[in-house]
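Possible regression after last week's pipeline update?

I re-ran a chain I had predicted before the update to compare outputs. Posting the input and the new output here so someone can diff against the archived version. Not blocking, just want to make sure nothing changed silently.
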Amino acid sequence: MPDSAAPHALELLAPARTADIGRAAIRHGADAVYIGGPAFGARHNAGNGVADIAGLTAFAHRFHARIFVTLNTILHDAELEPARRLIHELYDAGVDALIVQDMGLLELDLPPIALHASTQCDIRTPEKARFLADVGFSQIVLARELTINEIAEIRAAVPADVVIEYFIHGALCVAFSGQCYISHAHTGRSANRGDCSQSCRLPYTLEDGEGRVVAFEKHLLSMKDNNQSANLEALVDAGVASFKIEGRYKDLGYVKNIAGHYRRLLDGILSRRPGLRGASSGRTRLLFEPDPDKTFHRGSTDYFATGRKADIGAFDTPAYVGLSLGPVTKVGPDWFELETAEAMANGDGLTYLNKRTVVGLQANSVEQINPRNWRVFPNEPLARLPGLETGVAVHRNRDHAWEQALGRKSAERLIDVRGVFRETDTGFALDLVDEDGTTVTAALAFDRQPAREPDKAASGLRDQLARFGNTDFNLVDLRIDWSRAWFVPASALNRLRREAVEKLEAARLAAHVRLPRRLAVEPPVPYPEETLSYLANVYNHAARRFYERHGVRLIAAAYEAHEEPGEVSLMITKHCLRFAFSLCPRQAKGVTGVQGQVRAAPMVLVHGNERLTLRFDCRACEMHVMGRMKRHIRNRPPPCVVPPRFPGLAG
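New output (post-update):
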């Protein structure tokens, strides 16, 4: 596919639990950051005040990076007005775009802020993507389950000015986003309202239709973590322009490491393909070696990007096992020895598998015995470490020395500028032009005097003007344009440089353009379907009105409205347990004596007293986890949390 399929600048989009983490993401190469506001974000415990977001936005705009705020829960009627007021507050704070799920927001009186369709919108088809573009979304976050070819089909179906966004790294929800209701059915905590209880990470026993055990106490709905490092160039060719890292609950070290890793990979693509460009300004220099395997993950998969695979699940454990070090070679009274070629450090976190359980420990201290053997003194008695014996494989899930490097200043990001120092009728001037073409001039009235040492005057002037210190700029070239060498004291040069930098900072902020909300097509385009089930997540009258305007005739209420008392699909997923255990009818095709005998009969997941029926839609190649809402949940009033007034929010 030609480069014209990806006309947009390539954007690395990083998560931020806090504004400080957002600043670090930008320093480490992010072109944009998404962050939760004080309410209505799909990560219940990752909220931030409007004032903090305003500060992050001002910082980001220095690099022409952008800030997106997640407002992607479904909203109760009582929450629409608080949400509308919050959106105005965020717009006034300089936020570049909102990531939303609830179509009711499009019916409200909003400022002209850009809207992005959340992955919670379950965007899997060209028709759905085109509809969202036509109603005013300028960026759409595709389902993680799509193949690269399916992404290309969606890219071809939407207008060229609409940005395709795709998750390239991080934790994977096993269900299609927005199509998981297990948490609400069992605990009353709704994933669509930002409070998922993560039932998918629990251990389950899988039984076939006759009650025979297929898998015992495995984490059968727990996926490995997404890693598209090897597919970036193919994703660019398919039309992806925004490369999204998952992780608004993740810590600072994760964001630094993963943003730095993908910054390097995208910079490599940009250097090889001059027809592409980055989405923000400045060059990131990392002061550490990024390694995605050194931060929390459950194993890596590219999921369905290159087709269905059998090994996408993290069935053994949802914990982070870490990188392999080597086997235990000897066990002493309060120590054990490892054979490993890796350097170890006091404070390293270690793990090993005892039966089906991951055991973790910390190395209180370590001693190198020889180039391939280390003695480890753990932070607890060996008697409390079951199964630690000779031959056991040990992993490291916390590299203390590497984490210390991340804890210090670990990156810098500078914008290249070129300068001209010249004489004027009244003294001197310094012209600066940055890599984006922003140009400023600072002038200095000065009584010119010839330099006493002409040979040293130019070099001294260059040294003084190059001292950009803690600014965002890096002087890559300075031309001196004078009729003769003049004497200019260091204090005057410093004053001239500071004034030029201040003007350049102000000019860059003034030049930052916030893209307005995309205009909706008129008259309203029809929605691809005429009826909507609870899977459409319609939870308020404004969303109902939106779909009615777009031709939908029958609209069911969201699952959270408690109008679905019977057994329904509590989760719809591309992950298939029949396929994972070689029980799929398609896997039997062509196998002598087997073809035609395998049926996709229902199976059962068991966790404690909970039994969930699995039904298999082979035509769509999907698995449905069936169940009922628990009675005590169904008898509660539907959830509605009206947030308190936000600081500085009028009304």
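Follow-up from reviewer: compared with the archived run. The chain has four domains: 3-172+226-280, 174-222+526-651, 307-407, 428-511. Marking as no regression found.
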